[in-house]
Amino acid sequence: MSQFSFAHAGNTDWQAALGSCWSQLHAQLADKPPPTLGWCYLSDRYTGAAGNIMEALKAGLPAVRWVGTIGVGVAADDVEYFDAPGIALMLADIPPDDFRVFSDLAPLGTDGFEPFTALVHADGGTPDLPERLKSLAGQTLTGYLFGGLSSARNQPLLFADDVMLGGVSGVAFGPEVPVLSRVTQGCQPIGPKRTIDRAEASYLVTLDGGRALDCAMEDLGLPADIPDEQLRLELGQTLAGLIAPGEDTSSAPGRFGTDTQVRHLLGVGRKAGVLVVAEQLEAGTRLAFCKRNAEAARHDLLRIVAEVKAQAEAAGGARGALYVSCSGRGGPHFGAPNAEFAMVREALGPVPLVGFFAGGEIARHHLYGYTGVLTLFA
């Protein structure tokens, strides 16, 4: 089967950028079956032109169903348009009976289609978003979602044939569209995995029988008499890796498992020894304090690319790839512009690759942070 087609361009003039993309696509489509599904990722420099761009895409390829979103950055191949004008497009010739585009206006489950997996784009401000993702995962036969949240600094626009402000949308795939997906963590634990004994909403009270703050200071190697200002600075650079009760905790020593959700520490009550975490907490959750580590992130990214590439080759090869990375990662996190997608491209090989930098990443029914979600279409 043929590979997907893809194109990308950046220009302060969106019409010039789109024109460049059209030229790239037309050259690739000449000897391929007509496309039926398209991905469109726009950097938020093009927010004001999103409606015009979507109309132009629909007029140019009227048989194609379009999905996508806007982010602070988009990417394709080994080029990242981060905080810069950018368009990334990908086209596939998937039989129309094997996928369904959905949105709040056209939800899944209304025509008898049985989803196997689903790509999801969402606005992080959507009410009850975690519950909606769990419900959507429950509608798929595998329970597997992949995707991310719009990271646009102006309007979190989503594309599902039309341009929508907010909500949840995407495309569901049937079992005839095999996808292979992995999550890479951007953090490394700096202490043991502890168990939450007591928590109230986002307030972390006790861990392993001790005060939460005392445990954090022990794991961070901070002295008991550290000044308040320095303590706040250290905790502001620290994150909490959370593993919910019943989730898979297996991972190599010094590395998080794929079910780990990483959240900021938002505050501290020194007298009470309480920490405030950017998540609703519950007793029994495993927790390890961590910090963002570019070297660990690099090794883990290359590991998951190698794993999913080998799995795809065993299934006959990959037709296309989608990579959603946290907006806190990208080239700057890895030391140079374009560095993250360049690593994925080099390790993956010549497979059409597009993606965007998200305000939160989606894998299974979870919302992640500081991660990358790589998905291959086999």
From TrEMBL:
Limits of the FIST domain: 34-211
Lineage: Bacteria, Pseudomonadati, Pseudomonadota, Alphaproteobacteria, Hyphomicrobiales
Domain of life: Bacteria
PANTHER family, sorted: F-BOX ONLY PROTEIN 22
Pfam families recorded: FIST, FIST_C
Protein name as annotated: FIST N-terminal domain-containing protein
InterPro entries from the UniProt entry: FIST_C, FIST_domain_N
FIST C-domain domain boundaries: 212-365
Organism field: Xanthobacter aminoxidans
